[in-house]
Task: structure prediction
Amino acid sequence: MLPVPTPGMPATAAAGGFAVVDVEATGRSPWRHRVVEVAVVLLDERLDPQAEFSTLLDPLGPVGPTHVHRIAQEDVEGAPRFREIAPRLLELLAGRVLVGHHVTCDQAFLDREFARIGVPLPPVPLLCTMRLARTHLPQARGFGLAASAEAAGLGWYPAHTALGDARVTAELLRYCVRAASGRPDDWAGPLREAARVPWPRLGPARSRPSGEPVPLLRREALYGPWPRGAQPPAVVLTETGAMGSPA
Result:
């Protein structure tokens, strides 16, 4: 079973360590489609949790395959646009190794979203848990995130929610490191490289002239394991505050 994140976990953490990312999108092409949900789970250099961030986004168009990501058009009404959360994302990612399950896919979507607002992302060290799973989970029935999590004994999780996927990816990373008898020192090179990368800064968005704070809309669901045949609990959509507030 996945651990519950520490209550009161701070919204910010000192740069350095790992940023586990996941995005849900309106389609498969970073060039033609948009991010509709993003989550970041921050881990320190010893893979201990530090902070997390998650919100739905208004893609300024159709949300795409609702049957996959379970995001309906009405769910993104009032959600922030990417430009509104971009300064926060830059702060979260700066100085860290970027981690994901098929991480180049998540990186490509983020790269294109930032490019659309004129902000080039720097090249950063990447760590892919799909590649780690191929080495350390040979018994898996496949190497997608769900199959890898099952093979690692991590239990049911809310798949295709950005926060659920990011959390279980962080757990999968810990599992693979333990399986490899990895030590924190093993990551010293990529961590030092990530810390040296210069990151751009971005001022707050001004797309809401009324001055109202930008809301964050977060999807949340409980973790398993669940009895065989039982229906997992529904994903709940909640407004978690505004930009600059704990999420």
Q: What stands out?
A: The beta strands are 18-25, 35-43, 49-56, 97-100, 126-128, 215-220, 236-242. The longest helix spans residues 162-179. The radius of gyration is 17 Å. Confidence is low (pLDDT under 50) at residues 1-11.
